[in-house]
Amino acid sequence: MSFRTSAHAYTKVGNETSVEAADSHRLIELLYEGALSRIAQAKGALRQGRIDIRGTKISHAINIVLGLRDALNPAQGAELANNLDALYDYIQRLLMDAHKEGSEAKLDEATQLLSQLAGAWREIGANKSALL
Q1: Domain positions in the chain
Q2: Digits of tens for pLDDT over the chain (132 positions)?
Q3: Taking a C-beta distance cutoff of 8 angstroms, is the pair 68, 92 a contact?
Q4: Got a GO cellular component term for this one (predicted)?
Q5: CATH fold label, 23-131
């Protein structure tokens, strides 16, 4: 088994273990982290002229954002859920356009938006933990 194969297997087991042990709040954090990671990888591929990798990483990021949209619960705050859904839709369109146009600026904008959302989500988790 090569180092690359071993590293991939280790990462996969680590990711699966993180997901299995996570509560619903942590799962959303993992989705944000995954989307941001894929966008960073897509940006690297863009800079290297690797359209194939860029497309794959952007596709993964779009799917993760779709997962964030699916996790929304309008029953616990319809207005917030609707606003987040619209923002996630915008981020998905940014990512599609970034790939189509080869736009680093659009990848950066998607990163900025997701980073702000991830930060707010982490704060909610920290405040929730402090109350317990």
Answers
A1: 23-131
A2: 433 443 343 344 444 545 554 688 899 999 999 999 999 999 999 999 999 999 999 999 999 999 999 999 999 889 999 999 999 999 999 999 999 999 999 999 999 999 999 999 999 888 876 655
A3: no
A4: cytosol
A5: Four Helix Bundle (Hemerythrin (Met), subunit A) (1.20.120)
